[in-house]
Amino acid sequence: MAIAIVDYGMGNLHSVSKAVERLGGEALVTGDRSEIMGADGIILPGVGAYGDAMEHLRASGLNGVMQDAAAAGKPLLGICLGMQLLFSSSEEHGNHEGLGLLPGRVIRFAEGDYKVPHMGWNRLEFLRKDDPLLAGLEEGHVYFVHSYHVLPETKTDLLAVTDYGQKVTAIVGRGSVYGMQFHPEKSGELGMDLLGRFLSLCGAGVRK
Amino acid sequence: MLAKRIIPCLDVKDGRVVKGVNFENLRDAGDPVELAALYDREGADELVFLDISASVEGRQTMVEVVRQTAGEIAIPFTVGGGISKVDDMTRILRAGADKIGINTAAVTNPQLIADGARRFGSQCIVVAVDAKFNGAWGEWEVYTHGGRKASGIRALEWVKQAEKLGAGEILLTSMDADGTKDGFDLPLTAAVADAIRIPVIASGGAGTKDDFVDVFTKGKADAGLAATIFHYKEISIPELKLDLKQKGVEIR
Question: Which SUPFAM superfamilies match (chain B) (predicted)?
Fold first, then answer.
């Protein structure tokens, strides 16, 4: 099973691709349209600024590839900034249009009693335990690093949250499109379990 | 609420773990990658590698260790030791490390904190502070060069400056407590935690499981770091985490 890890010049893809390999998948780090469309599933990683990331995606035409892949029902997982890119827009350093695969916007954590960035191990609370990504897994801690968070417009897109002074979007999913705000590849056993679930969804084909 | 973190620290010289490691279930106790993978399996929340190589070749070897480690473990890790330029940071982060630890270089050139934070984000920059109580001042002084040189800088002032410059975390080692196994330096740790808003990793002095309870409660630390007590299995990480959980500390 080949998983395309989208290379668009943002961040280190080494840890994600190694994690996929440890789970028995073939990791294909690529920015090539036909390789991405030919893969069994797609991971959109991302570290850095939202505006830069969208610019890189547009410059290489990969925004269209992500939209086509999602429309074709190919399993797609956005990680960290990659999850935020799935949504309509972000207010990170100005206003930026996202990929628009899921409705919602990305906003900054309000400065308050809680430190920004939200960095460290925080506990997942599953809202849709029956989703194939989560079914049978136990809630636990995963590793977050982010200063902005997602407000999904559609409540049913929200699969899991974490508590950081407020309920923070941790996992989203609709059809074959998924997003994880935390880093599953840095989140110990639970992270690897979740990544493994995504891989099996890729193997199992499109979820109806 | 964030979980408190347990962090084993590995000293690496020319690609090998130094300071004894006493694990029966390792093929090669000196292999940093194998030891890192073992700590990951045991439930460590993060790892710190301190590169104490003195040569250019040793530093190069560390980059390879980082690359291999990143492929083997599923927890974040920090690499420190001998990093004095943004280019050094780039090399280590590209190889797969999550964070960079800087110590002496940050004291001699504080701008390095700001440059690193601007380039990679604050979450990547860990400022390591070696502090020792100065009786004449009635407070703690920063030491550099592996604890050999007094800097004349007050630790509480320095951590505030580091935070302002963009440090994401402070790795605080008490030179008074280090190696004693009498417990973490609670007054120092609490004073630093009260002075800043960024997380504090307490290091030096851990000898018992209760020492960790104390540093997370009285010491107000976000993470506890230790080396030999983990390497020699004086405290096992699963037992330590179970104990902390039972005592009401939020733990993964």
Answer: Ribulose-phoshate binding barrel
